[in-house]
Amino acid sequence: MKLSDRKKKILQYVVDDYINSAQPVSSKSITEKYMPDISSATVRSELAGLEELGYLNQPHSSAGRVPSIEAYKLYVTELMDKGKLTSKELNFIKEAFRDRADNLETVVQNTVKVISELTDLTSVAVTSHSDKEKILKIDIFKYKPTKALLLVVTESTLIRDKFIDIPENMSDEQLLDAGRMISNLFVGKTFNEIVNLESAITEEFSAYKEIFERVMTAIEEYFEKDNVKVVVDGEGKILNHTEYNNDGEKVKNFLSVVTSKDRICELLNQEEQGIEINIKIGGDDKKDLPEDCSMVTATYSAGGVRLGSYGVIGPLRMDYQKVVSVLEGVGKILEDILNENK
Amino acid sequence: MKLSDRKKKILQYVVDDYINSAQPVSSKSITEKYMPDISSATVRSELAGLEELGYLNQPHSSAGRVPSIEAYKLYVTELMDKGKLTSKELNFIKEAFRDRADNLETVVQNTVKVISELTDLTSVAVTSHSDKEKILKIDIFKYKPTKALLLVVTESTLIRDKFIDIPENMSDEQLLDAGRMISNLFVGKTFNEIVNLESAITEEFSAYKEIFERVMTAIEEYFEKDNVKVVVDGEGKILNHTEYNNDGEKVKNFLSVVTSKDRICELLNQEEQGIEINIKIGGDDKKDLPEDCSMVTATYSAGGVRLGSYGVIGPLRMDYQKVVSVLEGVGKILEDILNENK
DNA sequence: ATTTAGCACTCAAACCTTGCGAGTGCTAAC
DNA sequence: GTTAGCACTCGCAAGGTTTGAGTGCTAAAT
Predict the structure, then answer these.
(1) What tens digit of pLDDT does each residue of A243-297 get?
(2) Residue A203: CB atoms within 10 Å
(3) How many whole angstroms separate alpha carbon B121 and alpha carbon B9?
(4) Which among B235, B240, B262 is the top mutation candidate for probing chain A, defined by the most A β-carbons within 10 Å of its own β-carbon?
(5) Please, are residues B116 and B108 in contact by the beta-carbon 8 Å criterion?
(6) CA-CA distance, B330 to B90, in Å (whole number)?
(7) Distance from CA of B151 to the nearest CA of A (A)
(8) Residue A302 above 80 pLDDT?
(9) CB half-sphere exposure, A192, CA atoms < 13 A
(10) In this structure, are residues B276 and B298 in contact, taking their beta carbons and an 8 Å threshold?
(11) Could you tell me if A246 lies within 8 Å of chain B, comparing CB atoms?
């Protein structure tokens, strides 16, 4: 059986309707609302067809139809009308970003907050710092008799600090001197370049070999695990959605994901680059997404460089139209801000 | 009517029992479990007395008794037996703190995690940086043509960064020079001292008045709003407790509190100093605590200086005995670590 | 070949009714 | 002051009934 245009149309109606009523959709309601010129019996046979194709399910034999995961996928990629933000919503977004904060983190916090408010969903974002960023400043200074603090600042004002043990036989002057040398060597370079330097350079630093290695280790550690910031807002929004209302287990599961930075990171970092809006629907393909959840994400970038991703996580039955338009709307403003700050 | 010893004993049994059964407690079960030498009828009349005194409630006329808020308060302050951690629990705590992290934040993250796991409750902590901390390092450097980055490091390795507009007519050398002067002036002083300096010093800086004031403003801002870190773990743990299982509204309310740094801060900062373990029971006296919630907190300090508070938030019906012993157990280890790090 | 009206069938949800049992309060005796 | 005994209350679970929305099928109409 093929997906005729009429079937597609009807499928769209079913999903539309189900998204905002949360009730199985009946043949009658479709004819009444959308197709007054054909009869419910006709729609009924079309629905039976769509069910056979795997796009619809029946909770029980005398109920209306409910979209399957397949249906959602098709809906989002092909069927769905493109939404538009109301001027009220647009103003809300603009208002939220009015006092331009100067650090990325505040901007991202604003972003997730706005998205969560407008979509009534949990909103998440990660900022990933590219290893192509240059180091602006690197500084080592004595903090306690045996410990020094290493401070690294990068272009996107990522700031990192870490304690380093001062080698036993090192004097204060030597520490200062080593700090100067390391600074001279590292400032202006990217993390990538530094890691490659390592082997070639150690000669030169023979006197400060020990401290140099500790700095390298610290910098490498930033890369391995500490390279992202995660921001979440509206964790509890899931409870505004009926399918989660009486299912403690589901909520627990959902919360355990959105309150874990690691899990969120994992989810958002699968993001392929360059794709504007990306939709993942939980259950089958994505094991790490909570059950019956879907995630819509976008990336933000400045000057062509991807800085991170943001998006929403919520029930399968979410208002994709609205979500997509909100993400796009926020995205535009975000890029403006980021490019301006560059 | 007075609270006879027997009434107290019975009240304790009721609360004990209710805490781990979540069911109204009957006269019969009390005699059977705890007082086999008197009859249920006797207990019944005592229960009636306790009800009249406001310590017990009856969900309906033919049900057992349930503790009132007053009863919980009395229970916690007077009635409750002192709990002891099992060696298993103690080991769990020690294990969690084994690899001593060197920064406060990691330690606090560990703390809330351990507490949340052991108590099965949401655990929160705030670290407040005292304004008596000395500044270890202050640095201003050019970041973009019109912007400089201000970096402040304090004793407890609080690190703060903020963008500052560079005054229009300022050269790079002047900026460096101003940075040096400000560093000379500020390093080794506490925030408090600096704020007081302000008026007296500006003369000297006439050339750099503008940048100096911007630095001052930035530092003051840290104090007004940015002075605490909040850490939370086990946000979803509330769902493990039956009273919240089928009440979406309650859960929503609860989550909106524990996911808001501001709200948590407010709650934990009401903490009076010097009090070891502190119990707040929601509903009547504390409006800002979610409904039917109570909060048990402790403070942690190093060298006699209070660094912050930590504790749990959960349903009224929580295992206070265990919570208190966990908080105390963690507290001891925490103080060891902090003092050692000093 | 589609479309439609008509009708029998299905099934969840809402609503009653009923019986059970846990727990109480009261009273009268100890 | 304590206890046994008993009548009473009330939530809860189980079972039964009704209702109505929605379907699938069939036979006639286009």
Answers:
(1) 888 788 899 999 999 999 999 988 887 766 556 788 888 765 566 888 789 999 9
(2) 8
(3) 27
(4) B235
(5) no
(6) 9
(7) 10
(8) no
(9) 6
(10) yes
(11) yes
**pLDDT band at residue B225 under the 50/70/90 scheme:** low
Chain C: nucleotides below 7 Å from protein CB are 3-6, 9-12, 21-27
**Alpha-carbon distance A311 to A320, whole Å?**
12
Walk me through the domains of chain B, giving residue ranges and CATH numbers.
Answer: 5-79 (1.10.10.10), 87-128+228-340 (3.30.450.40), 135-226 (3.30.390.60)
Cβ within 8 Å, pair B161-A157 = yes
Interstrand relation of B56-57 and B66-67 (parallel, antiparallel or unpaired): antiparallel
How far apart, in Å, are the Cα atoms of B284 and each of B69, B220, B281? Answer: 9, 36, 8
Q: Does A240 touch chain B (CB under 8 A)?
A: yes
In order of A288, A324, B204, B288, the CA distances from B250 in angstroms are 28, 30, 58, 14
Chain A from 133 to 162: CB within 8 A of any B CB: 136-137, 139, 141, 143, 147, 149, 151, 153, 157, 159, 161
What's the rounded mean pLDDT across residues B256-273? 84
Which pTM value belongs to this model?
Answer: 0.87
Any strand C atom closer than 7 Å to A61 CB: yes
